[in-house]
């Protein structure tokens, strides 16, 4: 197992959490502390890293299954137990708690169809549902893209040629249909850039198959880390200089650049470790194990902590510290419990039902 993949998952999840925490602390209805948002806004890069990581890991694990239809069931079982059990349990718990305490219950789906779509992680219009297309667990919008990507990989497993034909047709239709006045192939609210990020991850996996030299891998790993730090510093400077109006993560070219840099970081980290480079530390590996729970849980926790702190009239530094520490402790504790009680049993069931050996999972995707 490549420990650096787990480490990158941890950093991605914590980055997204920092982004949402900073935005909450900066919100006028809470503390209006905009300075922290200038520092944490770059954390949204973790979202790009997640997409690229997913493309990389899924291709690393399942490219050997392309053109082997008998591997479709093991693939589906693994993907189902990876995504749905934890999401459904957490969605149910948050819905119950929201109803009981009256915080966040306005985000509950109205009607059985939006609820069913939310439970199945089917894409929904952000302008109608939850502001992101995912009610209650608003970051679950990214899982909707993830499932589409899983479907594409399934096509390649069933038949490699079928996969290429369908992908080529989808890409062509996506660009050509609007030009000839035909209806859009995908809903207007689904952005093609996220599928590009998956493709960037797959491309990094293909490059990894060329077996980079130790020197090249080390240079990529160290160089990408250094460049991320430089870009974060630049992002902070731009945010302060423009009063929070200019963020690298909001610029389309900046997003693609960060996704490409994420691919370089993943490629360098994994190839360096494969050739004897440093393994990730125990703490970041553990946080990587919890990353899915951290990702899904952090926003509801931050929201509740912010509302409770405001209701208790904790202002200034005391309130900010209470929200920050409380959110971090509650999120990590909850994610650890969810990993132990839901994720691990689910992955064990998937391996047994699909006869999928644990040693084939380089990053426990």
Structure write-up:
The chain has helices at about 5-25, 35-40, 45-60, 70-100, 110-120, 140-160, 160-175, 190-210, 215-240, 250-275, 280-290, 290-310, 315-355. Helix 1 packs parallel to helix 12 and helix 4 runs parallel beside helix 12. The model is unreliable at about 355-365 (pLDDT under 50). With about 375 residues, it is mostly helical.
Q: Which helices and strands occur, and which strands form pairs?
A:
Layout: H1 3-26, H2 34-40, H3 45-62, H4 72-101, H5 112-120, H6 141-158, H7 160-176, H8 192-208, H9 214-241, H10 252-274, H11 282-289, H12 291-311, H13 316-354
Helix pairs in contact: 1-2, 1-3, 1-10, 1-11, 1-12, 2-9, 3-6, 3-8, 3-10, 4-6, 4-12, 4-13, 6-7, 8-10, 9-10, 12-13
